[in-house]
Amino acid sequence: MNMLERHSLARKKVNVFVHNIKTEYKRDEKKIYIVCEGREDLGYYGQIIKRKYADIQMRKQYVGGKESVLEVYSAFDWSIYEKNKILFFVDRDFSYWMGEKQFIDTNVYITDQYSFENDAVNAEMFMEVLEDFYGFANAKDEELEKIREIYLERWKTFCDNSTYGMAAVLVSNIVNKVRLAKYAKIKKMIKIDSENVWVELVKGKPIKEYLYENLKLSSKHEEKILQMQSRFEKDKKNYSVRGKWALGFMVEVLEYIMDNAQKYVPSLYSEETNAPKRMCQLTEGGTMVMLAPRIKPVSSLETFLESNINCA
Fold first, then answer.
1. Residue in 14, 209, 193, 305 with CA at minimum distance from that of residue 201
2. pLDDT digits (tens, 9 = 90+) for 117-159
3. 282 phi/psi in degrees, rounded to 5
4. pLDDT in tens, 79-97
């Protein structure tokens, strides 16, 4: 399927989603519609709305990408339809760095960081998962605090050394006009116990070559990559790591701690208690499904929901 055929198919799908909402919509009904990019997004936004506004009916749809979500938004005449009954949720991605609009409308929520997965990646979630999914809850306070410090140290190093890879992704998006970041596997590019977290070699080749190959770049793009990397490093307040990479990092730290559990939580290896054990396996595709309902909503999302749903 070529690019034109993909766009045509996406447009047909968008028309179906628009038709579904317009067919069901009723002005006097206490019901909202939420439109997200992917299935995992619904587990975050849908669950937050369900917890906060239990009496409101909700129709959830995922449409397969930011562009499709915004196409659905653009298909409505907002002089006819109430904005606070049809809500849209999209990732910020690289929009700031591309000079794109950072605000679209009052019923369109844009994530604070790169994507909604970033909201799941923090020390609190890390410790919660370690205790609930890996069986570390009975560890001593000082052991858990040490693990938390390790996470925070590794996280800072991970972020500080992520700018080249993120710059390569952005340049790839511009050059290839298609998103290829999913082919650059974070698990292959980081090693938690290394000094820089990011590895130097992937299967014997420099990580730069790995990124070139999977992002369809070459040495002729290196100058653009370095320019963008410099922009990231000079404007850290607007920089964030790709959400799926951040999530992959957190999973790798969890696995690292689990693999070295006897070293970090020796108190759990006595006869009086049970040793840590994986209650479930966190996978690249399934982690967000399990974590999404646990995410504490960021303040911007809280404000967005309150300003829309409270008067729906």
1. 209
2. 999 999 999 999 999 999 999 999 999 999 999 999 999 999 9
3. -85, 115
4. 999 999 999 999 999 999 9
- Judged on CB neighbours under 10 Å (0-12, 13-18, 19+), 175 is middle
Amino acid at site 89: F
Strand partners, 19: none
Contact 118, 111 (CB under 8 A): yes
Record the tokens describing residue 165, joined without a space.
Answer: 């890879």
The 10 Å CB-count burial string (b at 16+, else e) for 72-96 is bbeebeeeeeebebbbbbbbbbbbb
Tokens of 32: 């909202």
- Taking each helix axis from N to C terminus, what angle separates 123-134 and 141-160, rounded to the nearest 10 degrees? 130
From 198, 222, 201, select the one nearest 212 (Cα to Cα).
222
Query: Diameter of the chain by CA atoms?
Result: 69
In a 10 Å sphere around its CB, with 0-12 CB exposed, 13-18 middle and 19+ buried, how is residue 64 labelled?
middle
